[in-house]
Amino acid sequence: MNPASSKLGQFLAMSRGSILPLATLLLVVFLVLPVPAMVLDIGFIFNIMISLAVLMVALNVTKPLDFSSFPTVLLFATLLRLGLNVASTRVVLVHGHEGGAAAGHVIEAFGSLLIGGDYVVGIFVFAILMIINLVVITKGAGRVSEVSARFTLDAMPGKQMAIDADLNAGLMTPEEAKARRAEVATEADFYGSMDGASKFVKGDAVAGVLILVVNIVGGIILGMASHGLGIAEAASNYTMLAIGDALVAQVPALLLSIAAASIVTRVNSAQDLPGQISGQFAIAKAWTPVAVILGIMGVLPGMPHLIILPAAAAAGFIAWKLSRPKPPVVENVAPAAPENPNAIEWEDVSDGAMLGIDVGFGLVPLVDERRDAPLMRRVTGIRKQISKELGFVIPLVRIKDDMALPANSYRITIGGTIVAEDEIWPDDLLALDSGDIDTPIEGRACKDPTFGMDAVWISADKRAEAIVAGYTVVDAATVMATHLNQMVRLNAAQLFGMDETKKLLETLKENSPQLVEGLTPQPLSLFTISAVCRELLREGVPLKDFRRICSAMVEAAAEGTTVAQIVEGVRQRIGSIIIQSLVPVNLPLPVVTLDAELETLLAQSLRVAGDAAFPIEPGLAQRILGAIEQAARPLMLEQRNYALVTSPQARKPLADLLRPRFPDTPVLSFRELPDDKPVEVVATVGGQAGYRTPQAEHSFSRG
Prior knowledge:
Blueprint: H1 3-16, H2 19-32, H3 37-60, H4 70-95, H5 105-112, H6 119-168, H7 174-225, H8 231-264, H9 273-281, H10 284-299, H11 305-323, H12 346-349, E1 355-359, H13 374-390, E2 397-401, E3 409-414, E4 417-423, E5 429-432, E6 444-447, E7 454-458, H14 463-469, E8 472-475, H15 476-490, H16 498-511, H17 513-519, H18 526-538, H19 546-557, H20 563-573, H21 575-580, E9 589-594, H22 596-609, H23 618-637, E10 643-646, H24 648-658, E11 667-669, E12 679-685, E13 691-692
Parallel strand pairs: 1-2, 9-10, 9-12, 10-11
Antiparallel strand pairs: 1-3, 3-4, 5-7, 5-8, 6-7, 12-13
Helix pairs in contact: 2-4, 3-4, 3-8, 4-7, 4-8, 5-8, 6-7, 6-8, 7-8, 10-11, 13-15, 16-17, 16-18, 17-19, 18-20, 19-20
């Protein structure tokens, strides 16, 4: 790079920040100090240049927010023009008796050339410009600004809710949501500022009238009293200069008013204003009637044929040109390199989707947008609901067809691993046996994919018959969506990783920065926090109250160093969060306990096993599973939520033991039960694989 050009660029970059302070200082100079006529000429030309630049920028932005500094620019441009008016008023009143060039050549040119040297004409021209600016443009732009500001502020809550909904549904990232919220806030600030800035333009127009009157009246009085001029000579000299001064100020004021009106009347578009207008006028059907009407007017007697007929011909040519089919646009695309049949790309290995559904060709109508895509709508609702319950955004579900699958089969994958598969019939309905069926209905017998209940696939015309018979009837899309819902809940830990952990911490940091700083990177790393959260999700603990969970992590980290120890410490501190998903706050918690003999056997087995992967002796494990199944069967038939309560040492091994067979049965330790939570022991599992149920409800000691 040329050293001279580099220094010039550095100078321009440094001087960019000093433009506004220098302009403010210049304004003060114009307001306070007397300036020569040459400086006034430079100031007036600079004012016109700035007004033209503002107008061009306003016409070429694609949306109003692209010129968000316009209200401030309008303020300073108006103040600069008023400062020039004050300086010119001082010069006109002091030197007006010397002739037309006393106030500078710019004022002289506007006073003589534009109005032909007749100040009466100048007054009328100025009055017309004032009417156009004040009554038409400024008043209309002010009304549009007021309405736009009101509507924008009223729409802000709805826009914020829409952003939150899209964020919860996974349609945008937290960064995109943050940027969108900032854009909404900027939009509200912009239209609110424009509502106030329109008053600047109106006040400037009124000030122009007052300055004109002051210059004329004051000039005539000074000319007669101080300089001995006759009333006619004084009126001629001072009125000509006053009119020229007013017109010099009114032209840039009119340009700024047009710029303000074009900004507030804009509609967001991908094109600038000229492109938007020209594109919308490029309609042949609009120009054809114009050509016909002008042609009829042109042949009427007395009309200026030489003017109207060429205009009609021009309109007809435009209509003909627009009606012609446009040639296809051929882009010069470089020829693609021949594919190597032996090359393997990353896309061939994996599509990167964490959550996916593969469907056979017979289930494609469920995701076809032409048929309203019933499965897609349900999947979106499921993601939104689960995200709210678990406390983090469930990733997007990739749905694709797989020709290798049978026609009516589907497969649910998480992280590329198949977690469930079944088959449904898209045109039929699934009738679920509620257990109280009097008259079985004929159909295709099967098992409900989600819960394994007895069910029957029936045709749509048997829906009413099935409902009367006592069946619960659902459509195929709901069956698949419910199955997906269950799989996502059971495998939520696989969907949570370090990226999700970082996003949760960043969100928490906005409201609780000290908590996050006290948690990571010390005493817990991002990896450890992620592992603890995954373990909590694996055991059915949601991350919705992430602040409380992080507070519990800080406390638990002081007592244990391993992930298992931290998890147990966190669980003991958030027991109320775990329990609130099982029973209402005002009802006791149904629990199943182990009797003293079984607790003793279990404790001995854990001591002998040490750190073994399967610490419970196999025979004892089978007896425990059988006993718990017998004890819990009455509760399961009653569809009652319950929890198995044991010692803190045995909680984790028992939870791992029960999870494959009883995934919905939470295992709690004594220390996880809040002191103020009433407990109802509904069953006690004995040590010899038997069980006994209490004769009456009683409280449970958590000592």
